[in-house]
Amino acid sequence: MSLRVIFLGPPGAGKGTQAQNLAREWGVPHIATGDMLREAVAASSALGLEAKRHMNSGGLVPDPVVIGLVGERLGQPDAKTGCVLDGFPRTVAQAEALDALFARTGIALDRVVFFDVSRGELLRRLTGRRICRACGRSFHLVSAPPKVAGKCDACGGELHQRADDSEATVATRLDVYQTQTAPLLDYYRGRTLLAEVAGEGPVDRVAEAIRTAVGQAVTR
Ligand code: ADP
Ligand code: ZN
């Protein structure tokens, strides 16, 4: 079995949480460009230094950089069975590059899942988000607080706020999403690949909606 799915939606929609769980369930790699870029930043590679400027201001990292990164990742052996793409594509140019990449290898995209979440809820989630420096797990100051303030429940690591989760930068990211990423909805709707799920509500309920949306596209 193979499964290729894109999780599409604004920052804070919950793509990362769902992708992590469902990719494991489906036995395919979770490919998150945001995580890959943050790793490059942490390693202070040339690519990381270039990416950091854009990320901290809330803008997008240039298409050629991200397309190169994803192209390389999809060429690795574990991606032969498929993937859950989280945070990519984010522009029409990236979507076209992905089409070209898949076409070259005779591979088809199975589904694009769009996470529908209101702007108010996105702002609330992003500005209250805190992340463990050690294991990457996320918490929310109000809706999912850690047992001990400032400490990760899973590993005891120190919680911090991502540089791009400050209020001003979050507003920029939501605007960038509207202008650069939202056009992808029509791009995929036109090819009848798009399924919309309600991204508010409990994690389990959202997961079930995604399973249904993806299951309809795939004979398993
Ligand atoms: P979120 O979805 O919460 O904004 P991500 O971790 O997916 O967070 O992305 C964080 C930042 O990394 C983005 O604001 C952007 O600067 C950069 N980034 C991630 N994916 C892409 C992409 N496909 N194209 C361009 N920039 C990207
Ligand atoms: Zn931790």
- CATH fourth-tier homologous superfamily: P-loop containing nucleotide triphosphate hydrolases
Distance between the termini: 7 Å
Strand content: 15-25%
* CATH topology tier name: Rossmann fold
CATH architecture: 3-Layer(aba) Sandwich
SSE series = EHEHHHEHEHEEEHHEH
| SS elements, strand count | 8
Provide mean pLDDT, rounded.
94
Which sheet architecture does the biggest sheet show?
5 strands, parallel
CATH uppermost class: Alpha Beta
Number of helices: 9
| Uncertain residue segments | none
Structural class: alpha/beta
Protein model, in words:
Helices cover 47% and strands 15% of the residues. With 220 residues, the chain is α/β, with parallel strands linked by helices. The protein has one domain (3-29, 76-215): P-loop containing nucleotide triphosphate hydrolases (Rossmann fold, 3-Layer(aba) Sandwich), CATH 3.40.50. Strand 5 and strand 6 form a beta hairpin. The longest helix has 15 residues, at 167-181. The termini are close together. Bound molecules: adenosine-5'-diphosphate and zinc ion (ZN). Residues 132, 134-135, 137, 152, 154-155, 157 line the site of zinc ion (ZN). Residues 11-12, 33-34, 37, 54-55, 58-61, 66, 87-88, 90, 94, 164, 173 line the site of adenosine-5'-diphosphate.
How are the SSEs ordered, and which strands pair?
Elements: E1 3-8, H1 15-26, E2 30-32, H2 33-42, H3 46-57, H4 63-74, E3 82-86, H5 92-104, E4 111-116, H6 119-128, E5 129-132, E6 138-140, E7 159-160, H7 167-181, H8 183-189, E8 194-198, H9 203-215
Parallel strand pairs: 1-3, 1-4, 2-3, 4-8
Antiparallel strand pairs: 5-6, 5-7
Helix pairs in contact: 2-3, 4-5, 6-7
Adenosine-5'-diphosphate binds at residues 11-12, 33-34, 37, 54-55, 58-61, 66, 87-88, 90, 94, 164, 173.
